[in-house]
Predict the structure.
Amino acid sequence: MYLKKNDIIDLTISSATAEGNGVGKTEDGIAIFVPNSAIGDKLKVRILKTKKTYAFGKIEEIVTPSPTRTDIDCPYFAKCGGCVWRHINYDAECEIKQQRVEDAIKRLGGFTNIEIQPIIKSENTLRYRNKAQFPIGTDKDGKPIIGFYAFHTHRIVDCMDCALQPEIFTQIMNITREFLESSENDIYNEQTHKGKLRHLYIRMGEITKEIMVCYVVNGKGLKQEDRLIERLKAEIPNLKSVIINTNREQTNVILGNRNRIAYGTDYITDELCGYKFKISPFSFWQVNRRQAEKLYNKATEYAKLSKDSVLLDLYCGTGTIGLTMANNCKSLIGVEIIEDAIKDAIENAKINGIENARFICADASTAAEQLKNEGLRPDVVILDPPRKGCGEELVQTIKEMSPQRVVYVSCDPATLARDLKHFSSSGYEIQEITPCDMFSRTAHVETVCLLSRNK
Ligand code: SAH
């Protein structure tokens, strides 16, 4: 490569990576990755690091800004590890996400003649989240800081307000900060594994406005805990639950496995698609409720259930997707690995008067294999796995159960593409793929895909 460190080159940004880097190519076809650039930018770029066929650079000067650029409305942008698209307009962000799904399906999946449906956009790209997990630490003077980890590090960026979180979360952060400054609680240090308070974890029911505050502690509790709870009770309307979670492990996993109710209940409730749901601290719950409704509506359309359909909902969390469809089918079986989520799912069926559902706490692949051996032959299978996807073994079991349709909800286009290849070689054909923007301003994109069994 002729480029070397500190060279300054002219570069036009022509595409973007999933992590939010703009990419431009030199005349010789060398790709240069430039953070915080936008497609269409004409730049002077300083080369920071070179590899055989690509290089990394940083913006030295914006010669002509991309027409998609917008004013950055958050002082933490590019410092904290949350948003990657606050410097371009929302339409441009959605185009990048659409392209990312298309690239995965075409290049990684090898499906060259599938047309991807337009991404389902969000009306609110601000303050849409109903959950936050803030690491707590200290600055160089020992003052408590609460915020987010910087990209790819465990360095905490102190955050006074996050544009993706409801304002009431900021209030809870402030109360916590002031409490820490005026009490003798020591804060956890990841390197030494000493100190108590590790994380602040908050959940809110968007419709009910109910609030859960959870403190993750390397120990049993906090000094002067009552004073903290009294203040939360006095200032946070609809405070339903304060939980002390004990995590004594030296681990990146945020929550430990023991919860103590310090105030109220150990759950909050919210509504989704007209149904009520109970949400426990450990249970998965969609962070963007309004977009989740749109996603579920698309999944319902794809599932095309009838009154005699048997529905299998794998990776069901608190049962949400299946329960919102249960009234349209004969029976529903949900499978989920987290015990508390399954307890919530069973309770959620009751709360909503749904009597044709049962739930199993197990690994999805193991449960599917067992259900198949017991003779279960579902008409429709819904899959909503975590980022690593569902894998070949489960696809094989689903093939043997031979459902007419599979609705695959994915939060990672790359593992979706891989799993779709397995489905395709197991006699299933992709009918339609729709991306959905559940995580505006961040790098993440959700996708829902309909597969049907070949005739
Ligand atoms: N469908 C639900 C949850 C989707 S998130 C909703 O829309 O709310 C993915 C879920 O898969 C999480 O609840 C997670 O706990 C669960 N999970 C992760 N690994 C699993 C496994 N091996 N088997 C079953 N469930 C698993």
Summary: Residues 303 and 407 are 6 Å apart (CA to CA). The chain has a mean pLDDT of 96. The first strand starts at residue 8 and ends at 16.
